[in-house]
Each structure stands twice: as structure tokens, then as C-alpha cells.
Amino acid sequence: MSIQVADDKKIIIKVPLGTPTFLAENFIREKKDWITKQLEKVEKQSELADSMGPLTDEDIRQIKKKARVVIPQRVEYYAKLAGISYNKIFIRLQKSRWGSCSVDGNLNFNCLLVLMPPEILDSVVVHELCHRRHMNHSKEFYDEVLRIFPDYKRCNKWLKQNGGVYFKRIEK
């Protein structure tokens, strides 16, 4: 069973087919505090995004322009540092992910990363580059990430706590 709190504050409960209702209800009751915290987080992110204002089409053009320069530089730096090769780099405006790595070695990054502190961008770059060696999220993968970027856990936590604000600015 799993629970997800969406950005629109909808609570999504997933249970295996045939699960008795009382078990699902008990699960929800057990997760009440977690649900409340998630709802508060979504509310705070919405308030912060509102205070920052929505990104206009022109803002997004400028962000993409900057990202096409900055992100490849950071990828090249960490690829050389770690001895990792890659194929192509794609920069897009995405509404739900910061980066990805394809089996062909293509790296995809969200242009909004350039709005964040530089170390957050770097942590995503290293994460995606490490998928060139480990196409999973195994212990070996994270050991590799931490070897290259020791501050990864702090940056990843920051991204989880604050990243939603950036997504909300493009939803307006």
C-alpha cells in the first residue's frame, strides 16, 4: 500500500486489488501525521511560489538560454573528473523531473536547475552521470555519487524540500 500527496493536495491511496477496506483505512490512520506534514509542505511551497510569481514565457526563454550554456559546462566538468562518458545533453522545461539518463547515454536536464543554488545543479548532474555506470538506484550507485559529490545527500534533501516551488511557478 502507498500514499501520495499531489501538488493539488489530492491524497492518492494505492492498495492491492482485493485488499479489505478496513486494512486500507487502518493504513491511512497510521499515516495521518505523515499526510498532514505533506499537506503543510505543499501549502508552504504554493505560498512561496505565489510570492515569487509565475515564470513568463520570456522568463522561460531566458532560463533555457542560460541553461544551454551552464549545464553542459557542469556536465563536462564532472564527466572529466569522474572519467564518465555520455552521448548528448538535452535541456528541457519539465514539470515533474530534474534529470534523467537514457540507456543510449543521453542526459536530460530541467532548465529550471539554473535558478537554484549551483551545488544543487551539480548534484543532479552527478546523479545523472553516475547512471552511466549504474542504471539503477542501488547502493553501488549512491556510493559512486557520494564519491564524486560528497555533499549529495544535503543537496538532494534541499531539492526534495524546495524543488516543488520551482515546478509551481510554471503551472500558473
Provide the structure class.
mainly alpha
Structurally, the number of domains stands at: 2
| CATH-level-4 superfamily name of the largest domain | Metalloproteases ("zincins"), catalytic domain
Annotation field: number of helices: 6
Kindly provide the radius of gyration, computed on alpha-carbon positions and rounded to a whole number of angstroms: 18 Å
Largest sheet: 3 strands, mixed
CATH architecture of the largest domain: 2-Layer Sandwich
In short:
The protein has 172 residues and is mainly alpha-helical. It has 6 helices and 5 strands, in the order ββαααβββααα.
Question: Can you describe what's shown?
Answer:
The chain is mainly alpha-helical and 172 residues long. The protein folds into two domains: 2-52, no CATH class; 57-170, Metalloproteases ("zincins"), catalytic domain (Zincin-like, 2-Layer Sandwich). It contains six helices and five strands. Strands 3-5-4 form a three-stranded mixed beta sheet, with helices on one face. It has a two-stranded antiparallel ribbon with strand order 1-2. Helix 2 (32-52) packs across helix 6 (152-170). The two termini are 32 Å apart. 23% of the residues are buried. The mean pLDDT is 93.
Topology, element by element:
Layout: E1 2-5, E2 11-14, H1 21-30, H2 32-52, H3 57-82, E3 89-92, E4 99-101, E5 107-110, H4 118-130, H5 139-148, H6 152-170
Parallel strand pairs: 3-5
Antiparallel strand pairs: 1-2, 4-5
Helix pairs in contact: 2-6, 3-4, 4-5, 4-6
Pfam families: YgjP-like (PF01863)
Domain YgjP-like metallopeptidase: 1-46, 63-162
InterPro entries: UTP_pyrophosphatase-like (IPR053136), YgjP-like_metallopeptidase (IPR002725)
